[in-house]
Amino acid sequence: MSLKFLVSRPTLSISLALMLSTGSATGAQQEHNHHAHHQQMMAKPGYQSSLQSYAIPELSLIDIHNNKVSLSKALGEGGPIILNFIFTTCTTICPVLSATFSQVQGKLGDKEKNVRMISITIDPEQDTPERLKEYASKFKAGANWQFLTGSPSDIITTQKAFDAYRGDKMNHIPLTLLRTKTDGQWLRLEGFASAAEIVAEYRQHLVESTEIGALYK
Amino acid sequence: MVLFALTPGLAMAEPTPVDGLTSEQMLVLGERIYRQGILPNGEPIKAVVSADVPVNGEMFSCVNCHQRSGLGSIEGSVITWPVNGKELYTPRRRTGAWHAAREKQGPGATQRWSLPAQYQAADARPAYTDETLAKLLREGIDPAGRMLERGMPRYQINDSDMAMLSHYLKNLSTENDEGVDENRIRFATVVTEGVSAKDRQAMLAVLKAHIETHNTQTRPHQRRASAGPFYKTEKYGAYRLFELDIWELTGAPETWRAQLDNYYRQNPVFAMLGGIASGSWAPVHHFCEDRELPCLFPVTDQPVVSDSDWYTLYYSKGFYQEGEAAARYLRTTPDTGRKNKLVQIYRAGNNSVLLAQGFRKTFANNGVTSIAEKKLAVDEPLTEKLLQELFEAQQPAAVLLWLDRADLATTTQWLAKRDRQSVTVLASWSLLDGDTSAIAETVRDNIYLTYPRDLPESNAKKISVLKRWLKIRKIPVTNLDIQSQMYFLGWMLPGAISHMRSEFFRDYFIESFDMMRDQDYAIAVFPRLTFGPGQRYAAKGCYIVQLGQGEQPALIKKSEWIIH
User: Fold this and answer.
1) How far apart are CA A175 and CA B256, in angstroms?
2) Superfamily of the domain at B184-316+457-533
3) Sequence-separated (6 or more) residues with CB below 8 Å from residue B197
4) B358 pLDDT above the threshold of 70
5) Over the stretch B290-336, which tens digit does the pLDDT of each residue have?
6) With contacts defined as CB-CB under 8 Å, which chain B residues touch A129?
7) Minimum-distance CB partner of A91 among B50, B64, B362
8) Which residue of B17, B62, B398, B446 lies most exposed, with the fewest beta carbons within 10 A?
9) Residue B55 and residue B66 in contact, taking contact as beta carbons nearer than 8 Å
10) Are the beta carbons of A93 and B78 separated by less than 8 Å?
11) Which CATH code, of 3.30.420.10, 3.30.420.40, 3.40.50.300, 3.40.50.2300, is assigned to B320-451+544-557?
12) Which residue among B73, B76, B541 sits closest to A8, beta carbon to beta carbon?
């Protein structure tokens, strides 16, 4: 039997599931070995952070108004961004990530109005623009929080670009990615960061990246 | 499933009394907290998730992660543990580290070698009590003193509401559901009057062949269950012989419900497999919904389209889905969709109504284009005169023609007499039953078809695998579409059963499909089947095609499978 089930009741198979997920993380890590020199992995309560560089693929996704949007344009062409991956029928990880984003909206100050938030679905077959629109309204998404879907292949390419692809949507991880305007590097938060922590990480990253940028001027 | 209507002989866990409520009333209120996140006072329960994010229970109810069965889930790196009483109120043993003494193992339990007590690993946590369960929900700390992940909400719940919730959990998924015993699982499949003998045979032959193959595996599974690796014991131990009843339904669809109830009373089944009906599947769907009885992949183009119904898992939304695809295609085609008028022609009392519904509902979000509709009476033919009148009155950029072959022939004759530059016609491949002979070569540029299956150019290899499988089992190819649907179901079934281990709860069975990875194996007629929590239509796409030239025209793909 080569059909694969995800285990929905964690007993005997948990050790295997954990082994498998460790395996995929290791594989993903290896892909990014060339970035190892500027990775700083730090454990925080509830999440881990690291600094990463990602190449943004040239492709178009679709917003909740059925408009095609180039990914690089949606990502603000270098501007400040907070990004995550979700799907609308996800019941465990995504509601937490989305509720956190909803809270982050209110915590960003007046000076941070240029920070855009983006949620990209990892279930493009189910998540039509209409479904994403409903989902956005459920989480009270404001004008600066955009939701994107697209063709299944473009969505996989996008996830791979951010080392967020885990083979199947039911295998995904809680992940938040931040980028400030100044140096293009991404701060990767794996786990459940609180709204206050996301905003604090963003501000800290802004300060650090500005300082690093100043050194090279 | 919770035993609301108490079955004689089954004891219900005694609740802590709350305000003079009966046990049944507490179960109802407890279920509302568990499933909807609504407290007995009608307010959503409040919680904090991810350390500082206030949320309400409607979006963060227990059922979200712990599932209807209460048996939990795994999503990526996040593990959600079982919360049904029999799991919560006993210590959690470590996997494979502990086995009860031989005399304490229940009937049918596998007897294995076990480490002496002094070498066995300690329990992962002690049994919950009502107090430690309340502490967990309020503070996120389990009876072993461990802090749970931030994804688990911390709820504001008072003692009396807590008593209702814990009473509900103690009665959740306690006894295996009907239709299963130590050796067998009973299934049923529905065949209604009016289904052709050929189609009936196509469905039953493949189902029976799968079941026959499965039922030859008793000895290897028993051996694996008793001597296989410890972490697979439970899955192998779930093996049961499959039995399939055929529930023949006769007469008018209004009478099917009573017949179904009668069949069930006589011989309860654990779930329904496949099934085929003449006309709408709705009567069987509602029977399954009311009985909370899973029904896997019935052969139908007329399912119930719902975002909330739970117990029937379909391949697709059938005709409705083709209408949706046509709307999405036109919406993404600038000259026909966004700014121009459309005309939709369909016929009453027919599958074309479903196509029209799917189109209308999906297109409604566009807000720019107006749709003029013409509904023909059941026996009203489409005439060239009517087409001409509609065209002159509306000047449409596209015509949705949800009609049959004869009407399409009329349309092509009418088209041939016109300047065809400005006319696009969309029709349904399924409604034409694949007979495109009415589409003359001269008008093929104008006519588009919804095509809800994989394209011949990409599924030839899968079809040949299926044909080989049928040939080995001496099953003649009679209706490859139906046969391929049952072929996939037969492949999925043993996996879904072993996934349950020996927790034979119907909700858990359905949840195994919710948690399933997306599939492209053993599927001959769809490009992909995708699953997810609460998703009940596995094939989500539909191609738009045109016909090539020649007497046996190729299909020219005009869209991707998924159209946004």
Assistant:
1) 50
2) Response regulator (3.40.50.2300)
3) none
4) yes
5) 999 999 999 999 999 999 999 999 999 999 999 999 999 998 887 66
6) 564
7) B64
8) B17
9) no
10) yes
11) 3.40.50.2300
12) B73
